[in-house]
Amino acid sequence: MDRLPGPLREVAEHLAKLPGLGPKSALRAALALLKFPREQAEGVGRSILTLRERLCLCGTCASLAESDPCPICADATRNREQLCVVSEWDSLLALEEMGLYRGLYLVLGGLLSPLDGVGPSALEFDLLRKRLDSGQVRELILALGSTLDAENTASHIKNLATQGYPGVGVSRLAQGIPMGAEVKFMDRETLRQSLMHRQAV
Ligand SMILES: [Zn+2]
Predict the structure, then answer these.
(1) What confidence tens digit (pLDDT) does each residue in 20-72 have?
(2) Is the domain covering 79-172 a CATH 3.40.50.2300 domain?
(3) Ligand 1 centroid to 200 CA: how many Å?
């Protein structure tokens, strides 16, 4: 990028820090921004500046929102007995896009990862306890994925629930063979999980 004119290089270098953008695609994006009419370019700049100001964390579920409580927590038609725990906000978005789940959420803000120094105090466990203390929740649905950190986090939450909240059931998203996949191409762990969580047909 050294040979680029200064202002263009500056924008490209900023964009290259975004996930999924290498130097080449950052330069392409910078060139596309250059072609924006002035008004549109100003709009982009302004929206980036106001991003932090206009967003907040919902005090009930810790998701990103424009209001506190967020529209999901404020929605009286949602089932308050189901609480789905996700690690990050984009998992919540994926579940919402599917449109089948009508319960509430809690965004942990990550996964327990002792090797990276992420313990329970770094995540939203206080908020989770508060939700369970409210006595409304009957089922905790863990949607944390199936990495090692996700497994550890899931068992931590399961222990927390079984020890402190005997009336709350804990379930997790089923794991196993993805749609359209063949058994012979499955890795051992996926196959083991599919066998463990097999369903009656
Ligand atoms: Zn919320």
Answers:
(1) 999 999 999 999 999 999 999 999 999 998 988 889 999 999 999 999 999 99
(2) no
(3) 36
